[in-house]
Protein backbone atom coordinates (compact mmCIF):
# COMPACT_ATOMS: atom_id res chain seq x y z
CA UNK A 1 0.00 0.00 0.00
CA UNK A 2 2.93 2.35 0.75
CA UNK A 3 3.91 4.65 -2.11
CA UNK A 4 6.52 7.31 -2.74
CA UNK A 5 4.42 10.47 -2.82
CA UNK A 6 4.95 13.20 -0.30
CA UNK A 7 2.19 13.86 2.24
CA UNK A 8 0.74 16.95 0.56
CA UNK A 9 0.14 14.71 -2.46
CA UNK A 10 -1.18 11.77 -0.44
CA UNK A 11 -3.84 13.86 1.30
CA UNK A 12 -5.22 14.75 -2.14
CA UNK A 13 -4.78 11.49 -4.06
CA UNK A 14 -4.58 8.71 -1.51
CA UNK A 15 -3.66 5.53 -3.30
CA UNK A 16 -4.88 6.68 -6.74
CA UNK A 17 -8.20 4.80 -6.65
CA UNK A 18 -9.97 4.28 -9.98
CA UNK A 19 -13.61 5.19 -9.53
CA UNK A 20 -16.51 3.81 -11.55
CA UNK A 21 -17.34 5.90 -14.67
CA UNK A 22 -14.13 7.89 -14.14
CA UNK A 23 -15.64 9.89 -11.28
CA UNK A 24 -13.03 12.27 -9.83
CA UNK A 25 -14.69 12.49 -6.41
CA UNK A 26 -15.23 9.25 -4.52
CA UNK A 27 -18.79 7.99 -5.14
CA UNK A 28 -20.99 7.60 -2.06
CA UNK A 29 -21.99 3.95 -1.96
CA UNK A 30 -25.15 4.49 0.06
CA UNK A 31 -25.95 0.84 0.54
CA UNK A 32 -26.27 -1.36 3.59
CA UNK A 33 -25.66 -4.64 1.78
CA UNK A 34 -24.05 -6.08 -1.38
CA UNK A 35 -25.59 -8.54 -3.83
CA UNK A 36 -23.96 -11.96 -4.29
CA UNK A 37 -23.96 -13.62 -7.71
CA UNK A 38 -24.59 -17.04 -6.20
CA UNK A 39 -25.03 -18.83 -2.89
CA UNK A 40 -21.52 -20.23 -3.38
CA UNK A 41 -20.07 -16.74 -3.78
CA UNK A 42 -21.80 -15.53 -0.58
CA UNK A 43 -20.38 -18.54 1.25
CA UNK A 44 -16.87 -17.90 -0.11
CA UNK A 45 -16.99 -14.24 0.95
CA UNK A 46 -18.10 -15.12 4.47
CA UNK A 47 -15.39 -17.79 4.68
CA UNK A 48 -12.78 -15.22 3.65
CA UNK A 49 -11.92 -17.25 0.52
CA UNK A 50 -12.90 -14.45 -1.84
CA UNK A 51 -12.58 -10.68 -1.60
CA UNK A 52 -15.52 -8.33 -2.17
CA UNK A 53 -18.06 -6.58 -0.04
CA UNK A 54 -20.70 -8.34 2.09
CA UNK A 55 -22.46 -5.85 4.37
CA UNK A 56 -21.61 -2.23 5.27
CA UNK A 57 -20.83 -2.99 8.93
CA UNK A 58 -17.93 -5.10 7.62
CA UNK A 59 -16.80 -2.74 4.87
CA UNK A 60 -18.00 -0.27 2.24
CA UNK A 61 -16.17 1.05 -0.86
CA UNK A 62 -16.47 4.74 0.10
CA UNK A 63 -15.29 4.10 3.64
CA UNK A 64 -12.62 1.73 2.31
CA UNK A 65 -11.02 4.47 0.20
CA UNK A 66 -10.88 6.69 3.26
CA UNK A 67 -9.37 3.95 5.42
CA UNK A 68 -6.68 3.40 2.81
CA UNK A 69 -5.77 7.08 2.74
CA UNK A 70 -5.51 7.30 6.54
CA UNK A 71 -3.40 4.12 6.66
CA UNK A 72 -1.01 5.68 4.12
CA UNK A 73 -0.76 8.92 6.10
CA UNK A 74 -0.12 7.12 9.41
CA UNK A 75 2.17 4.53 7.75
CA UNK A 76 0.06 1.68 9.11
CA UNK A 77 -0.94 -1.53 7.31
CA UNK A 78 -4.59 -1.30 8.26
CA UNK A 79 -7.11 1.37 9.20
CA UNK A 80 -10.62 0.90 10.56
CA UNK A 81 -13.11 3.76 10.40
CA UNK A 82 -15.55 4.28 13.28
CA UNK A 83 -18.56 6.53 13.74
CA UNK A 84 -16.75 8.59 16.41
CA UNK A 85 -13.39 8.94 18.11
CA UNK A 86 -14.87 7.30 21.22
CA UNK A 87 -16.09 4.45 19.00
CA UNK A 88 -12.51 3.95 17.77
CA UNK A 89 -11.05 4.14 21.30
CA UNK A 90 -13.60 1.84 22.96
CA UNK A 91 -13.56 -0.55 19.98
CA UNK A 92 -9.77 -0.74 20.17
CA UNK A 93 -9.49 -1.17 23.94
CA UNK A 94 -12.32 -3.71 24.14
CA UNK A 95 -10.66 -5.73 21.36
CA UNK A 96 -7.31 -5.78 23.14
CA UNK A 97 -8.33 -6.22 26.80
CA UNK A 98 -10.06 -8.96 28.81
CA UNK A 99 -11.05 -9.33 32.46
CA UNK A 100 -7.95 -9.57 34.65
CA UNK A 101 -5.77 -7.51 32.27
CA UNK A 102 -3.74 -4.46 33.24
CA UNK A 103 -3.65 -1.11 31.37
CA UNK A 104 -1.30 1.80 32.08
CA UNK A 105 -2.57 5.18 30.95
CA UNK A 106 -1.36 8.73 31.14
CA UNK A 107 -3.12 10.99 33.64
CA UNK A 108 -3.95 13.66 31.04
CA UNK A 109 -6.50 12.47 28.51
CA UNK A 110 -9.68 13.70 26.85
CA UNK A 111 -12.35 13.45 29.60
CA UNK A 112 -14.47 10.66 28.06
CA UNK A 113 -11.38 8.53 27.37
CA UNK A 114 -10.32 9.10 30.96
CA UNK A 115 -13.68 7.84 32.28
CA UNK A 116 -13.66 4.88 29.88
CA UNK A 117 -10.28 3.79 31.27
CA UNK A 118 -10.78 4.62 34.95
CA UNK A 119 -14.49 3.86 35.40
CA UNK A 120 -15.89 1.69 32.60
CA UNK A 121 -13.03 -0.76 31.99
CA UNK A 122 -12.84 -1.70 35.72
CA UNK A 123 -16.53 -2.73 35.50
CA UNK A 124 -15.35 -5.42 33.08
CA UNK A 125 -12.46 -6.52 35.31
CA UNK A 126 -9.66 -4.51 33.68
CA UNK A 127 -7.25 -2.89 36.12
CA UNK A 128 -6.00 0.61 35.24
CA UNK A 129 -2.88 2.34 36.58
CA UNK A 130 -2.95 6.06 35.82
CA UNK A 131 0.39 7.88 35.90
CA UNK A 132 2.29 10.77 34.39
CA UNK A 133 3.93 8.98 31.47
CA UNK A 134 6.31 11.87 30.90
CA UNK A 135 7.83 11.00 34.29
CA UNK A 136 10.24 8.20 33.47
CA UNK A 137 10.41 6.78 37.01
CA UNK A 138 6.62 6.83 37.46
CA UNK A 139 6.15 5.07 34.10
CA UNK A 140 8.70 2.37 34.89
CA UNK A 141 7.15 1.77 38.32
CA UNK A 142 3.66 1.44 36.80
CA UNK A 143 4.59 -0.99 34.01
CA UNK A 144 4.29 -4.71 34.78
CA UNK A 145 5.57 -7.63 32.69
CA UNK A 146 1.93 -8.61 32.08
CA UNK A 147 0.67 -5.09 31.19
CA UNK A 148 -1.50 -5.46 28.08
CA UNK A 149 -1.99 -1.86 26.93
CA UNK A 150 -0.32 1.52 27.40
CA UNK A 151 -2.52 4.46 26.40
CA UNK A 152 -1.72 8.16 25.92
CA UNK A 153 -2.19 11.17 23.60
CA UNK A 154 0.56 12.61 21.36
CA UNK A 155 -0.35 16.13 22.52
CA UNK A 156 -2.54 15.73 25.59
CA UNK A 157 -5.96 17.33 25.94
CA UNK A 158 -5.96 19.98 27.46
CA UNK A 159 -2.52 20.45 29.09
CA UNK A 160 -0.52 19.92 25.84
CA UNK A 161 1.80 17.43 27.54
CA UNK A 162 3.99 15.62 24.99
CA UNK A 163 5.17 12.11 25.86
CA UNK A 164 8.30 10.58 24.36
CA UNK A 165 6.66 7.86 22.24
CA UNK A 166 9.95 6.26 21.15
CA UNK A 167 11.26 6.01 24.73
CA UNK A 168 7.98 4.60 26.12
CA UNK A 169 7.69 2.09 23.27
CA UNK A 170 11.30 0.87 23.47
CA UNK A 171 11.13 0.29 27.22
CA UNK A 172 7.62 -1.22 27.23
CA UNK A 173 8.32 -3.65 24.41
CA UNK A 174 11.37 -4.91 26.33
CA UNK A 175 9.81 -5.18 29.80
CA UNK A 176 6.24 -6.15 28.81
CA UNK A 177 6.69 -7.92 25.48
CA UNK A 178 2.97 -8.57 24.87
CA UNK A 179 2.00 -4.99 25.53
CA UNK A 180 0.20 -2.91 22.85
CA UNK A 181 0.93 0.81 22.81
CA UNK A 182 -2.08 2.86 21.76
CA UNK A 183 -1.57 6.55 20.97
CA UNK A 184 -4.32 9.08 20.31
CA UNK A 185 -2.92 11.29 17.54
CA UNK A 186 -5.94 13.62 17.25
CA UNK A 187 -4.22 16.90 18.24
CA UNK A 188 -1.12 16.26 16.10
CA UNK A 189 -2.60 14.59 12.99
CA UNK A 190 -0.29 12.36 10.93
CA UNK A 191 1.16 15.50 9.34
CA UNK A 192 2.80 16.57 12.61
CA UNK A 193 3.59 13.17 14.17
CA UNK A 194 3.55 9.50 13.15
CA UNK A 195 3.42 7.43 16.35
CA UNK A 196 3.60 4.08 14.49
CA UNK A 197 7.00 5.00 13.07
CA UNK A 198 8.21 5.72 16.63
CA UNK A 199 7.20 2.33 18.02
CA UNK A 200 3.50 2.67 18.87
CA UNK A 201 1.31 -0.28 17.83
CA UNK A 202 -2.07 1.43 17.33
CA UNK A 203 -2.94 5.03 16.50
CA UNK A 204 -6.46 6.21 17.25
CA UNK A 205 -8.09 9.42 16.05
CA UNK A 206 -11.10 11.55 16.57
CA UNK A 207 -11.53 12.42 12.88
CA UNK A 208 -14.24 14.83 14.02
CA UNK A 209 -11.35 17.28 14.44
CA UNK A 210 -8.57 18.22 11.99
CA UNK A 211 -8.88 15.23 9.65
CA UNK A 212 -12.37 16.26 8.58
CA UNK A 213 -11.73 19.85 9.58
CA UNK A 214 -15.08 21.44 8.85
CA UNK A 215 -17.15 20.82 11.97
CA UNK A 216 -19.81 18.76 10.19
CA UNK A 217 -18.90 15.13 10.93
CA UNK A 218 -18.30 12.94 13.99
CA UNK A 219 -15.87 10.08 13.17
CA UNK A 220 -12.87 8.08 14.34
CA UNK A 221 -10.07 5.76 13.17
CA UNK A 222 -7.85 3.02 14.50
CA UNK A 223 -4.63 2.38 12.52
CA UNK A 224 -2.25 -0.51 13.13
CA UNK A 225 -0.48 -3.48 11.59
CA UNK A 226 -2.77 -6.02 9.93
CA UNK A 227 -2.89 -8.60 12.71
CA UNK A 228 -4.12 -6.07 15.32
CA UNK A 229 -6.37 -4.38 12.75
CA UNK A 230 -8.14 -7.68 12.04
CA UNK A 231 -8.99 -8.00 15.74
CA UNK A 232 -10.22 -4.42 15.99
CA UNK A 233 -12.41 -4.77 12.88
CA UNK A 234 -13.79 -8.23 13.55
CA UNK A 235 -14.30 -7.80 17.32
CA UNK A 236 -14.26 -4.12 18.32
CA UNK A 237 -16.17 -2.83 15.30
CA UNK A 238 -18.17 -5.82 14.06
CA UNK A 239 -19.26 -7.45 17.32
CA UNK A 240 -18.81 -5.10 20.26
CA UNK A 241 -19.51 -1.49 19.30
CA UNK A 242 -21.00 -1.73 15.80
CA UNK A 243 -19.86 1.91 15.60
CA UNK A 244 -19.68 1.98 11.80
CA UNK A 245 -18.93 5.15 9.85
CA UNK A 246 -21.59 5.97 7.26
CA UNK A 247 -20.60 6.49 3.60
CA UNK A 248 -21.82 10.14 3.58
CA UNK A 249 -19.48 10.94 6.47
CA UNK A 250 -16.64 9.03 4.79
CA UNK A 251 -17.15 11.16 1.66
CA UNK A 252 -17.03 14.39 3.67
CA UNK A 253 -13.81 13.34 5.43
CA UNK A 254 -12.22 12.39 2.08
CA UNK A 255 -13.11 15.89 0.88
CA UNK A 256 -11.86 17.56 4.07
CA UNK A 257 -8.58 15.63 3.94
CA UNK A 258 -7.66 17.13 0.58
CA UNK A 259 -6.87 20.42 2.34
CA UNK A 260 -5.33 18.92 5.50
CA UNK A 261 -1.80 20.04 4.64
CA UNK A 262 -2.75 23.63 3.77
CA UNK A 263 -5.07 23.88 6.78
CA UNK A 264 -2.46 22.54 9.22
CA UNK A 265 0.26 24.80 7.82
CA UNK A 266 -1.96 27.88 8.14
CA UNK A 267 -3.24 26.93 11.60
CA UNK A 268 0.24 26.20 12.96
CA UNK A 269 1.51 29.56 11.63
CA UNK A 270 -1.40 31.53 13.12
CA UNK A 271 -1.11 29.68 16.42
CA UNK A 272 2.47 30.90 16.88
CA UNK A 273 1.21 34.49 16.48
CA UNK A 274 -1.61 34.00 19.01
CA UNK A 275 0.79 32.34 21.47
CA UNK A 276 3.15 35.32 21.19
CA UNK A 277 0.26 37.66 22.00
CA UNK A 278 -0.96 35.57 24.96
CA UNK A 279 2.52 35.35 26.43
CA UNK A 280 2.76 39.09 26.85
CA UNK A 281 -0.91 39.72 27.77
CA UNK A 282 -0.96 40.93 31.41
CA UNK A 283 -4.35 39.24 32.03
CA UNK A 284 -2.90 35.79 31.22
CA UNK A 285 -1.10 33.92 33.97
CA UNK A 286 0.38 31.00 32.00
CA UNK A 287 0.36 29.70 28.43
CA UNK A 288 0.39 25.93 27.69
CA UNK A 289 1.86 25.28 24.24
CA UNK A 290 4.42 22.60 23.29
CA UNK A 291 6.41 25.04 21.13
CA UNK A 292 7.41 27.23 24.09
CA UNK A 293 10.94 26.77 25.41
CA UNK A 294 9.60 26.71 28.99
CA UNK A 295 7.10 23.91 28.22
CA UNK A 296 8.17 20.92 30.37
CA UNK A 297 8.28 18.62 27.31
CA UNK A 298 9.74 21.12 24.83
CA UNK A 299 12.72 18.89 23.95
CA UNK A 300 10.44 15.91 23.29
CA UNK A 301 8.05 18.11 21.30
CA UNK A 302 10.89 19.40 19.11
CA UNK A 303 12.01 15.85 18.41
CA UNK A 304 8.56 14.33 17.91
CA UNK A 305 6.46 17.02 16.20
CA UNK A 306 7.03 18.53 12.76
CA UNK A 307 5.13 21.64 13.83
CA UNK A 308 3.68 22.43 17.26
CA UNK A 309 0.01 22.33 16.31
CA UNK A 310 -3.02 24.56 16.57
CA UNK A 311 -4.10 24.03 20.17
CA UNK A 312 -3.33 26.47 22.99
CA UNK A 313 -4.44 26.45 26.61
CA UNK A 314 -3.95 29.41 28.92
CA UNK A 315 -4.64 30.10 32.55
CA UNK A 316 -6.35 33.28 33.69
CA UNK A 317 -5.95 34.67 37.23
CA UNK A 318 -9.27 33.24 38.48
CA UNK A 319 -12.13 30.93 37.51
CA UNK A 320 -14.37 34.01 37.20
CA UNK A 321 -11.94 35.69 34.78
CA UNK A 322 -11.77 32.51 32.67
CA UNK A 323 -15.55 32.38 32.50
CA UNK A 324 -15.79 36.05 31.61
CA UNK A 325 -13.38 35.60 28.68
CA UNK A 326 -15.68 32.91 27.28
CA UNK A 327 -18.67 35.18 27.75
CA UNK A 328 -17.06 38.15 26.00
CA UNK A 329 -15.46 36.71 22.87
CA UNK A 330 -17.23 37.75 19.67
CA UNK A 331 -15.23 36.06 16.90
CA UNK A 332 -13.83 33.06 18.78
CA UNK A 333 -16.74 30.64 19.02
CA UNK A 334 -17.84 29.27 22.38
CA UNK A 335 -18.03 25.55 21.63
CA UNK A 336 -16.25 22.31 22.46
CA UNK A 337 -14.57 20.27 19.69
CA UNK A 338 -11.46 21.47 17.85
CA UNK A 339 -9.65 21.42 14.54
CA UNK A 340 -12.35 23.30 12.65
CA UNK A 341 -12.07 26.31 10.31
CA UNK A 342 -13.54 28.47 13.11
CA UNK A 343 -11.49 29.31 16.20
CA UNK A 344 -13.19 27.51 19.09
CA UNK A 345 -12.90 28.41 22.76
CA UNK A 346 -13.99 26.32 25.75
CA UNK A 347 -13.45 25.76 29.48
CA UNK A 348 -12.10 22.21 30.07
CA UNK A 349 -12.84 21.97 33.83
CA UNK A 350 -16.58 22.59 33.33
CA UNK A 351 -16.94 21.19 29.79
CA UNK A 352 -14.72 18.55 28.09
CA UNK A 353 -13.25 17.37 31.41
CA UNK A 354 -16.25 17.97 33.67
CA UNK A 355 -16.40 14.24 34.46
CA UNK A 356 -12.98 14.45 36.15
CA UNK A 357 -12.72 15.23 39.87
CA UNK A 358 -10.83 18.27 41.14
CA UNK A 359 -7.95 15.95 42.17
CA UNK A 360 -7.87 14.32 38.73
CA UNK A 361 -7.82 17.73 37.06
CA UNK A 362 -4.98 18.84 39.31
CA UNK A 363 -3.03 15.64 38.55
CA UNK A 364 -3.56 16.35 34.84
CA UNK A 365 -1.75 19.65 35.35
CA UNK A 366 -4.51 22.23 34.95
CA UNK A 367 -7.24 23.99 36.90
CA UNK A 368 -10.62 25.72 36.57
CA UNK A 369 -8.72 28.85 35.48
CA UNK A 370 -7.75 27.15 32.21
CA UNK A 371 -9.23 28.21 28.86
CA UNK A 372 -8.60 26.14 25.71
CA UNK A 373 -8.37 27.57 22.21
CA UNK A 374 -8.44 25.70 18.92
CA UNK A 375 -7.06 28.13 16.37
CA UNK A 376 -8.98 28.25 13.10
CA UNK A 377 -8.39 29.69 9.66
CA UNK A 378 -9.37 33.30 10.37
CA UNK A 379 -6.76 36.07 10.07
CA UNK A 380 -4.71 35.69 13.29
CA UNK A 381 -4.81 39.46 13.83
CA UNK A 382 -8.61 39.23 14.12
CA UNK A 383 -8.33 36.38 16.64
CA UNK A 384 -5.85 38.42 18.69
CA UNK A 385 -8.04 41.55 18.54
CA UNK A 386 -11.01 39.49 19.74
CA UNK A 387 -9.06 38.04 22.67
CA UNK A 388 -7.74 41.51 23.56
CA UNK A 389 -11.26 42.98 23.73
CA UNK A 390 -12.55 39.93 25.67
CA UNK A 391 -9.72 40.28 28.22
CA UNK A 392 -10.52 43.99 28.63
CA UNK A 393 -14.24 43.27 29.05
CA UNK A 394 -13.49 40.44 31.50
CA UNK A 395 -11.42 42.83 33.67
CA UNK A 396 -14.12 45.50 33.69
N1 LIG B 1 -9.59 11.90 21.51
C1 LIG B 1 -9.35 13.19 21.76
C2 LIG B 1 -7.95 13.66 21.97
C3 LIG B 1 -10.41 14.09 21.80
O1 LIG B 1 -10.15 15.38 22.04
C4 LIG B 1 -11.74 13.61 21.59
C5 LIG B 1 -12.92 14.52 21.63
C6 LIG B 1 -11.93 12.26 21.36
C7 LIG B 1 -10.84 11.43 21.32
C8 LIG B 1 -13.30 11.66 21.15
O2 LIG B 1 -13.68 11.86 19.84
P1 LIG B 1 -15.21 11.97 19.34
O3 LIG B 1 -15.90 10.73 19.81
O4 LIG B 1 -15.77 13.20 19.96
O5 LIG B 1 -15.07 12.03 17.86
N2 LIG B 1 -12.61 15.79 22.11
C9 LIG B 1 -13.43 16.78 22.27
C10 LIG B 1 -13.02 18.02 22.78
O6 LIG B 1 -11.91 18.30 23.21
N3 LIG B 1 -14.03 18.85 22.73
O7 LIG B 1 -15.19 18.24 22.31
C11 LIG B 1 -14.87 16.87 21.97
Short description:
The protein folds into two domains: 251 residues, 3-Layer(aba) Sandwich (Aspartate Aminotransferase, domain 2), CATH 3.40.640.10; 135 residues, Aspartate Aminotransferase, domain 1, CATH 3.90.1150. Helix content is 41%, strand content 15%. It has 15 helices and twelve strands.
Commentary on this structure:
- With 396 residues, this protein is of the alpha/beta class.
- The chain folds into two domains: 7-257, Type I PLP-dependent aspartate aminotransferase-like (Major domain) (Aspartate Aminotransferase, domain 2); 261-395, Aspartate Aminotransferase, domain 1.
- 41% of the residues lie in helices and 15% in strands.
- It contains 15 helices and twelve strands.
- It has helices spanning 7-13, 39-46, 61-74, 85-96, 111-123, 136-142, 165-175, 189-192, 226-241, 247-257, 260-280, 298-304, 319-328, 358-363, 380-395, and strands spanning 78-82, 102-106, 127-131, 147-153, 180-184, 202-206, 220-224, 284-288, 311-316, 333-334, 344-346, 370-374.
- Strands 1-7-6-5-4-2-3 form a seven-stranded mixed beta sheet, with helices on both faces. Strands 8-9-12-11-10 form a five-stranded mixed beta sheet, covered by helices on one side.
- The mean pLDDT is 97.
- Ligand LCS is lined by residues 84-86, 110, 113, 153, 157, 184, 186, 206, 208, 218, 220, 336-338, 352.
- Residues 84-86, 110, 113, 153, 157, 184, 186, 206, 208, 218, 220, 336-338, 352 line the site of ligand LCS.
